[in-house]
Amino acid sequence: xxxxxxxxxxxxxxxxxxxxxxxxxxxxxxxxxxxxxxxxxxxxxxxxxxxxxxxxxxxxxxxxxxxxxxxxxxxxxxxxxxxxxxxxxxxxxxxxxxxxxxxxxxxxxxxxxxxxxxxxxxxxxxxxxxxxxxxxxxxxxxxxxxxxxxxxxxxxxxxxxxxxxxxxxxxxxxxxxxxxxxxxxxxxxxxxxxxxxxxxxxxxxxxxxxxxxxxx
Length: 216
What we know:
Layout: H1 13-32, E1 59-64, E2 72-75, E3 81-84, E4 87-91, H2 97-108, E5 117-123, E6 131-136, E7 142-145, H3 152-159, E8 171-177, E9 180-186, H4 188-193, E10 208-211
Parallel strand pairs: 6-10
Antiparallel strand pairs: 1-2, 1-5, 3-4, 6-7, 8-9, 8-10
């Protein structure tokens, strides 16, 4: 299972975080089968996304008014930077589209008079800190871009539900609160297979949902 979508907060830190997950996740999945975690809170303070922040893997459309040869579609590299005609290695990750457009205008002003740049996000991945990771016995384990008011039901729809081998009611949300990593039990079997809407809980950016395998 790929863990390439681990959070990155600075140069080199993405690989260190990925290594930490490689070590941590097997232990957590084993623990899901043996430990009794508290239920995930059914109501939490919502995270309001005021502006979209660009992240590695995002697809961008960069348009330079009056200069179609300088306009291009580009993906944000794993190092968070992009390269466009006349402009190399501009930091895109961590900026809003408007902030990146202004940075591009500053770079292009060395070659053009009063350039006007527009940046549109056409494919969303977002910064790692705003992603939700789903691992284990999901039909399609993956990292998802957090959306406002996202719940575990939304996550289950996005990943196609759980497999026949999943111990859904032993699933765990790993969440960082006040700098401390906490773990909460979620009842995915009751929600997905039993239709128990009371088992639906809110998700937060940075959450990891671990779905262990059922013991036979």
